[in-house]
Design a protein that fits this description.
Helix content is 61%, strand content 10%. With 608 residues, it is an alpha/beta fold. The strands form two sheets. Strands 6-7-8-3-9-10 form a six-stranded mixed sheet. The protein starts with 7 loop residues before the first helix and ends with a helix.
Amino acid sequence: MKNFLTLLKYIKLFKRNVILYFGTVIASIIFSIVSLTMLLPFLDIIFNANNVAVIKPQHFELNSNFVLGYLKYTISQIIVHHSATYALGIVCVFIVMSIFLKNIFLYLSYVVLTPVRNGVGTHIREDLFSKILQLPIGYFTEQKKGDLMSRLTNDVGEIEMAVSSSLEGFIKEPLTLIFYLIVLFFLSFKLSLVLLLLLPIGGFIIGSVSKTLKKQSNIASEKFSEALSVVEETLSGLRVVKAFTAERFIFAKYKKSNQELFNVRNKINLRKDIASPLSETLGIVMLSVILWIGGSMILEQKGLGLNGSAFITYIAIFSQIINPSKSLSSAFYAMQKGSAALIRVNEVINTESLINENINGKKLETFNDKIEFKNVGFSYNNIPTLKGINLTIKKGQTIALVGSSGAGKSTLADLVPRFHDVTFGELLVDGINIKEYNLESVRTQISIVTQEPILFNDTIANNIKLGFQDATESKIEEAAKVANAYSFIEKKEEKFDANIGDRGSKLSGGERQRLTIARAILKNSPILILDEATSSLDTESERLVQDAINKMMQNRTTIVIAHRLSTIKYADEIIVLNKGEIAERGNHNQLIEQNGIYKKLVDMQELK
């Protein structure tokens, strides 16, 4: 229940709807009670039309005898002045109108509730996705994409259902029970005391049965995310799966997760589905107890305060408690499932971001001087990745980072756009600690081209102008020309409006990379990070891409991560990293003369 209270901030957004829901539900309950309460006393008089001498109550008393007595007197006067048939017609019209109004208000309650249910889910999805976008890169190395997708889809869906069930179950049904109980106490205080003792017993039994539902729902969500992860990974690597004839292995992996999900969901549904029959059975047991106790007291004339007609009215109203009780127990089960889903969603939303955006920090309007690493260290999960890095990158310089895999090249480059923050030491931009700047303003000054081209299932134009939606067609075309991409774009039937498919699947590797370069060129940032941008390309594509890169690097401060050392021969300074430390530094010729790690790498690639 504590976790469910976090939903209040979303429900408050629909305060007006909730108030209207209260009003329509109460109106619906009142008309329902009116139709039930009035029916039996009226019929009692009508079908005893020969005995219509009913005395009008003389003194007002707020009890059932006065109310029912006055109703009997009123209907008897109608029979006297008109006929029993006429009175019966009035009763039928009265009942039809009451039921009609009850259902009108019931429908209106659904109308005002629907935006609350869907709106809460919509806002939670938006907050969750917004948080995902804000979390640092390191967070996603520990999380499966399928798990995050499951939280966005399956878990939020469970919360939507829980919100709907809870608002109905914990507003409508309790109100219905309260109003009915008030009427029952009004009709017979003694008999209702017995009922009040029986209700907590039923609640305790239902609560005991549902105790493990929350835990099982959490397991089901985890199994669903595992199955979704298998699907996501398979679709991403389908070419490899088929090449290695691993279809059976992958299917077996998916089938295992899917079967486990099947078993857990069966347990959940069996436990959830018992709510309705269990509450109905308990309701019938209570009804039988009330029938026996009330009937015995009437037959033995022990001062129950009800005649036969009023007792039948009492039983008719009590029978209407069973359905709200069933709905209330079902809502409790839905809340348990929703609570488990909400915990998983809140785990992401409440994750503390290690990167402080510093919204009110200084704005890095332009990059004017240099980037400085002062004794910088970085640890991931308490494992040192970088140690004692001292490096100055002056404006306009090209700095290359080389070294074996795992040496810390990408981690060092990732510190500049603050994908990670330094663990100790300082990273300065124009003499000011990078953490003092507004994060968005820092990233505005940086363009990145990665080894794997990151593209989206959209048009060529939208991929180039990513983040700059107001870019003109001429600017987009100019960027494409500089990136050597214009030639292949012009050959397409829809040109810049052509869709490139999932992750750019409709393009070749070189074409995809040239689009990412065009995107970086359009951004026109003074700092450029190239993360092995040509390492996965064939010779012809590499030449076109490298030519585009050379154009882009002009008059920019560039950090190049490279395995192909031929691309960084003319860098101003080459930094050789080994186990997170700077092992060697200098230009190409100086490092060759040192005859160290760099010289060995050059010899391995037969570079002259």
